[in-house]
Amino acid sequence: MGKLLLKTAALLLAVLLVLTALGPFLTPKWVEGHAQNGGTYLTTTTDGFFALEENSLDVLFIGSSQILRDIDPVQLEEETGFSAYSRATTKQAASVSYYYLKNALKTQSPRMVVIDPSTLYTEYAVDEDEAYVRYAFDTMPLDWDKITAIWHTIRGSEKQHMLDYLLPAVYYHDRLTELDAFDWSYPFIKDKSDPNRGAILLDDIEPQDFTPLTGDSDKAEPYAESSLYWYEKFVELCEQESIRLVMLRTPRVFWTEEMHAGDAAFAEAHSIPLIDFNLETLYTEAGLDDQTDFFDRGHLTAAGAHKLTHVLGGLLTELDG
Predict the structure, then answer these.
(1) DSSP output for 72-118
(2) pLDDT at 133
(3) Which residues of the chain have pLDDT under 70?
(4) Between vectors from CA 34 to CA 29 and to CA 40, what angle results, nearest 5°?
(5) Looking at CB atoms within 10 Å, which of 44, 53, 95, 130 has the fewest?
């Protein structure tokens, strides 16, 4: 019986080692110019962050696709001298934002963090948005932060399982016969730095009917309790690490006066500055044009992002003073 148990354990260990080894090859490669990227390039942005020199960042951006698309960290550094990087992912869950920050602080010591709390008013639909959860975790190195972040993010799921994330070869096993030369070679690429510093800017233009906000509403949009919990932990972590936290909103056609009031109340309650480009004052200062600077209802074009980043850089410089 003892020998049988040892053989079984050895077999299971061998299977585990094989699955672990196959994971980097089977996981889709979301990089520019590769068929699997889907226009996201989030393998590039994630690997680029972990390729940074330790303690080289002044400003860390965290949040949703609005941060990903509407901020140019390269331009920010050129104009202000702030070394910056964007750890933004499409539809980023509040729990992901918190653990991204916690994980980043293992290798970086930013003096300023800028967050777009994208799900402050909505409960995260973990199964509906499974693809975006995978964007957030599939290329993140395996450590305890990743494990706990996955658990907290998918624990309400009816179909997702920890094993699928911890051993991606299990989830992506059907790709084994589809692997190409790029899949086999990518894990061995030594320089995985991202020249765009985590940003993925957009070129196509879709004219919008955007009306800037006045900021005069005294009625605030109610928060989603589960998201609020994680954003408050995010604030606490910044306080513990003596990091200047800034709350940012970029222009969205669907943003409301009540949402701005909710943002303002959250910012005031936690003594953090709010920069909202939905407000007429900042929208006008940036020189944004809803006919030429929008990609869609929630994102700017690259040209719009450059206008916004220029003004944002000045505001962050004032806050850093």
Answers:
(1) -HHHHHHHH---EEEEE-TT--HHHHHHHHHHHTTT---SEEEE--T
(2) 92
(3) 1, 37-39
(4) 65
(5) 53
In the DSSP assignment, the letter for residue 293 is: S
pLDDT on residue 37: 67
Question: Alpha carbon of 197 to those of 193, 231, 312: distances in Å?
Answer: 8, 24, 17
Q: How distant is the alpha carbon of residue 79 from its chain centre?
A: 23
Q: What type of residue is 233?
A: K
Range 289-295 contact pairs with CB under 8 angstroms and sequence separation of 24 or more: 290/207, 290/208, 290/209, 290/210, 290/253, 291/207, 291/208, 292/205, 292/207, 293/205, 294/205, 294/206, 294/207, 294/208, 294/210, 294/251, 294/253, 295/69, 295/202, 295/203, 295/204, 295/205, 295/206
Question: Which H or E run contains 255?
Answer: none
Q: For residue 200, which amino acid is it?
A: I
Sole residue written with tokens 């992002």: 305
